[in-house]
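Sequence only, no structure available. Ideas?
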Amino acid sequence: MADIRGSYDDLFTAVPNALAAFLDDGDAGGSAAVFVDGRPVVDVWGGFADAGRTAPWELDTVTNVWSVTKTMTALSALVLADRGELDLDAPVARYWPEFAAAGKEKVLVRHVLSHTAGLPDYDGPVEELYDWEAVTARLAALPPQWEPGTAAGYHSLTQGFLVGEVLRRITGRTPGAFFAEEVAGPLGADFRMGLPAEHDHRVALAVPPHGRDEDYVAGAAGQDPAPSTATGIRLRDGNSMSWRRAQIPAASGFGNARSVALVQSAMACAGTVGDVRLLSPAGCERAWEEQYSGEDRILGMPVSWGLGYGRFGTTYGWGGWGGSLVMIDPANRMTVAYVTNQMREPDADNRGLELVMAAYEGLQGLNA
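Reply:
I predicted one. Tokens follow.
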């Protein structure tokens, strides 16, 4: 069995065992964490931080968690809403006047958080993603593809810029700076959007699925490459220095399972972790409010969207391209996070679900 390092409550042995099984199946590396009541009951890692398997995954290794980043941007928006600085029912154009162009004057803040704004596709060059002003100007000029609020289509790249520009207009800070100063900083969480150079030595680059190379393109399960005219993001783009430095608030967050679980424990624990209060209980509950239920036009599957989070039964959260995931269970005050550099094909990847199920085995013992 693969060597797993870190610590865990004996009741939760199934979680490190699951991580070891992934590594035994050929994964490069990864980390898993389970927090209950804002405290870690599992914090483990193993494997390697590189495709060549020469650098061990360490305590402080971080990697790109792709769309798990969306939950960090959503939390930031909910913090502002809880403070009364952001009205979720307001038109986006109240904060970003240029956005009203091309028939978007009725797009509400809650629409961009719930993937119902009608702007799912980013069709500019990949290099433009690293230029905040250029991306937001492009999005401001686009017409919606459907009547906002009437349908959902996963805004894989665009959601972060749309929410992020609203945050920037309100606070005068980039989404990454706001998150660092108002969320990660107070919690002591090792998660960043826009990674400074001094952390480069800690980065585990993404490893393509077996049989693929760095030209592997992002897409939903069963879709290869991504549909429509949307720009295809290749693995090599996500592994580039430009991507790492940029603020792409839907997809370029860097962290590990510990930091992801710590941040999202605020949502599991009614807004407070330890002695740090980020939101009120009511502010947390907003994330759970269903905004849309039905077939997602881009993902091609049934979804239930809350405000920035996917809803799954009595839990909510989201996953990222390649396998990383966070699951939040407010009823049990539990957060489960899995972060990996080893990509698998979306339609053949159950690792996150397996880890969540393993965490519930431990929770049953804890509540016995």
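The chain has twelve helices and 14 strands.
Hope that gets you unstuck.
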